[in-house]
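Sorry to interrupt, but I need a hand with the structure work. Could you write out one complete protein record for me, on any chain you like? Just paste the record in under my message, thanks.

. . .
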Amino acid sequence: MANHAGSEGAVYVGANQVAEITGYSIESSMEPIEDTLLGDAWKTYLAGNQSWSASCEGFWDETDTTGQGALTLGSSITANFYLEGNTSTDTYLTGTALVTGVSKGASVNGMVTVSFSLQGTGALSESVVV
């Protein structure tokens, strides 16, 4: 059984790695369609449309023009989420997404942080690095 440390992960916008990312999450979901009939004792469902969304957070880096700089509100991007690194045979998830949220914050005893919210548009595919 293979296990992987979170530190092996990475987020890319197209071919460009997003700098200073400290974590990310991806959620895939499916909307069930109820097809219960009158007289049925139990509700029944069919599989409906699928969707995905993602978020990533890290330390703000204004010099990362092709990574963080490409994640502007409303932009359409190709998002690549590397789960176990980005070398040959490693698995990653890829899809087109809209940037739906950007948040920056700071505290007196901490780093300036940034987080991005993404809404997938179309399929999220699992691929292998070649």
Observations:
- The domain at 6-32+45-128 is CATH 2.30.110.20 (Pnp Oxidase; Chain A).
- The CA atoms of residues 32 and 43 lie 11 Å apart.
